[in-house]
UniProtKB/TrEMBL annotation:
<dbReference type="InterPro" id="IPR036388">
    <property type="entry name" value="WH-like_DNA-bd_sf"/>
</dbReference>
<dbReference type="Pfam" id="PF00486">
    <property type="entry name" value="Trans_reg_C"/>
</dbReference>
<keyword id="KW-0804">Transcription</keyword>
<keyword id="KW-0805">Transcription regulation</keyword>
<feature type="DNA-binding region" description="OmpR/PhoB-type">
    <location>
        <begin position="136"/>
        <end position="235"/>
    </location>
</feature>
<dbReference type="GO" id="GO:0032993">
    <property type="term" value="C:protein-DNA complex"/>
</dbReference>
<dbReference type="GO" id="GO:0005829">
    <property type="term" value="C:cytosol"/>
</dbReference>
<feature type="domain" description="Response regulatory">
    <location>
        <begin position="10"/>
        <end position="123"/>
    </location>
</feature>
<dbReference type="InterPro" id="IPR039420">
    <property type="entry name" value="WalR-like"/>
</dbReference>
<comment type="function">
    <text>This protein is a positive regulator for the phosphate regulon. Transcription of this operon is positively regulated by PhoB and PhoR when phosphate is limited.</text>
</comment>
<dbReference type="InterPro" id="IPR001867">
    <property type="entry name" value="OmpR/PhoB-type_DNA-bd"/>
</dbReference>
<feature type="modified residue" description="4-aspartylphosphate">
    <location>
        <position position="59"/>
    </location>
</feature>
<feature type="domain" description="OmpR/PhoB-type">
    <location>
        <begin position="136"/>
        <end position="235"/>
    </location>
</feature>
<dbReference type="GO" id="GO:0006355">
    <property type="term" value="P:regulation of DNA-templated transcription"/>
</dbReference>
<dbReference type="GO" id="GO:0000976">
    <property type="term" value="F:transcription cis-regulatory region binding"/>
</dbReference>
<keyword id="KW-0902">Two-component regulatory system</keyword>
<dbReference type="Pfam" id="PF00072">
    <property type="entry name" value="Response_reg"/>
</dbReference>
Length: 236
């Protein structure tokens, strides 16, 4: 049975198609969300400055500034979920959106029911991340210090600038050093385990995380690939 969306969850739809947008707004509103609509990046910025938002649904193909640039800025300035939407179905667009910090990706044309399901999944993961009450102690994993309560991590005492998904992946892997995590297990960190996902989404986030911790992808020190299965963390 599908779970209802979180109470009063607020979604900002950034979509320039004035035929599609009202349909999306109506469907999500009927499903219990609070939904606002912005037709371009400037309007989205203005709304985010004035209102609290839990999730942004961004079309890549916007007039003027595109959705990818907007995604980068939202991820930098706001701690909210992001779903990228575009008519372009190439893998490069999916990877680019994930690389900029999007939590999920949905190609057009899409089912309104699928968008609703993906929105619920991203929001559930965000709620879990923000409402968890972890132990106050900081986990030490080799040169890493991971503070689950503050959702911060350091490497050799230097703060790491991680997205929500990258932090979740690092905390999951480092929390059980030596254990092999399959991609399916790690998809929980990427999408909350609620919707279909593709292995490349995990690989992309792992690649971004490796870059930020200085792990050579050819000979990684900390996050090692277990071919055909997934990844294992080594604190050495």
């Amino acid at each position: 049975m599908a779970l209802p969306p979180p109470d009063a969850a607020r979604i900002l739809l950034v979509e320039d198609d004035d035929r599609l947008a009202p349909l999306v707004v109506r469907h999500l509103a009927d499903s219990g969300f609070q939904v606002d609509w912005a037709a371009d990046a400037a309007a989205a910025d203005a709304h985010l400055r004035a209102h609290a938002v839990d999730l942004a649904v961004l079309d890549i193909m916007l007039p003027g500034e595109d959705g990818l640039s907007l995604c980068r800025r939202i991820r930098r300035d706001h701690d909210i979920g992001i779903i990228m939407v575009t008519a372009r179905g190439q893998e490069a667009d999916r990877i680019r959106g994930l690389d900029l910090g999007a939590d999920d990706y949905l190609p057009k044309p899409y089912s309104l029911w699928e968008l609703e399901a993906r929105a619920k999944a991203v929001l559930r993961r965000c709620v879990r991340a923000g409402s968890a009450q972890p132990a106050p102690t900081i986990r030490q994993a080799g040169p890493f210090q991971i503070d689950a309560s503050r959702r911060t991590a350091t490497l050799h005492g230097q703060a790491l600038d991680l997205t929500r998904t990258e932090f979740d992946l690092l905390a999951r892997l480092a929390g059980d050093s030596g254990r092999v995590f399959s991609r399916d297990m790690l998809l929980e960190c990427v999408r909350g385990g609620e919707t279909d996902a593709f292995d490349r989404a995990v690989d992309t986030h792992i690649s971004n995380l490796r870059r930020k911790i200085g792990d050579d992808p050819k000979t990684p020190t900390f996050i090692r690939t277990v071919w055909g299965i997934g990844y294992r963390f080594h604190p050495s």
